[in-house]
Design goal:
Number of domains: 1
Strand content: 5-15%
Helix content: 40-55%
CATH architecture: 3-Layer(aba) Sandwich
CATH class: Alpha Beta
Amino acid sequence: MTEDGHERTFQTNYLASFLLQMLLNDLLLRAPHSRVVVTSSVAARLGTVDLEDLELTTRPYRPFFSYATTKLLGILFVRELRRRLSGAGVTAVAVHPGPVGTNFGSGSLFPDFMYRIPIRKKLLIGYFVCTAAEGAEPLVWSAAAPDRESVDGLYFSRFAPRRPPSPLADDPDLAQRLWMQTERMLQPWIGPMAPVAGTGT
């Protein structure tokens, strides 16, 4: 748990991103051709959404499933942000950068096994996973693609648009209810801030 009282992965991967967008919303609306890029993952296919237990605190804690859920929440965030800011000149996109060979997840059993011995890591990178620099490429491309309509509201696996890995990501009602629940969770930080809205609400 963080000092704010939230499950660490949930706060880092989802809640903090949502709060940052809320705090930057006025600037995004004023700037021409603003773009919000959310790092997602194919792991979202294993995520779940329980609006009464977004942080998965009522079940045995499994770090990977917490991670997968936050990546699904990120796609739903992109979908609802696009709906709310439709016509306001703000583009939103979710991107799976591919399997990236970093120290992320080093406390979990499988990454520890794969990366603890340097030769394993050396063999993996270049064959099964990409380097950190290569993983950043689709995120940078999504942020700078000249045709913003070609990426708006979509889920990308590296440079290719794909269907989201979970059918839950295609539920607009769930996306809207998740947004409202997240706003309630962040009320101590956002206070009476005006709701995020463009011409699409």
